[in-house]
Amino acid sequence: MINRIDHIEIIVRDAEEYIAFLEKLGFEVVTRTTHHGGSAELKLPGENQPIFEIHQVEGEENPGINHIAFAVDDANAAYEALQTAGITSANRPNYVKSTGRLTVNLRDPDGFRIQLVDAERKAPV
After folding, report:
1. What was the pLDDT predicted at 97?
2. 80: in domain
3. Residue 84 to residues 3, 45, 79, 81, 100: CA-CA distances in angstroms?
């Protein structure tokens, strides 16, 4: 079902400062979106590198890792497979307009958020 790590979402105090820091470490900005009021996706050079999605803390969020997302070929099929396997913490697939992707959010046994996302990256809407 899972192909690879797709992205790791990190909530930060100051998104622009954090993005500049990652760029100094060699990360490249892949895209900027309106997701979460404004976010950026960065990766290290080279093939098949996981993406770090950075967004500024909002509301009652705390800085830190929000979730790890894994790429799947088909989010709808992955959701059905989770249901069949008895994983009841999974939410139905959700289309995220600002990223152009279909996601399934679920919680592990300790309550940590995991996301399954269609493998195909599309331009934000």
Report:
1. 84
2. yes
3. 19, 38, 9, 5, 27
Query: What is the average pLDDT across 12-34?
Result: 92
Amino acid (1-letter code) at residue 32 = R
What does the alpha-carbon distance between residue 94 and residue 31 come to, in Å, rounded to a whole number? 21
Asked whether residue 35 is assigned to any structural domain, the reply reads yes
Q: What is the 3-state secondary structure (H, E, C) of 95-121?
A: EECCCCEEEEEEECCCCCEEEEEECCC
* Nearest Cα residue to 118 out of 77, 88, 89, 87: 77
Reported pTM: 0.80
121: tokens are 């990256």
Print the domain residue range for 22. 2-118
Q: Which 3 state secondary structure label does DSSP give 7?
A: strand
Is 123 contained in some domain?
no
Q: What's 73's domain CATH number?
A: 3.10.180.10
**How far, in Å, CA of 15 to CA of 7, rounded?**
17
Statement: residue 111 has pLDDT above 80: yes
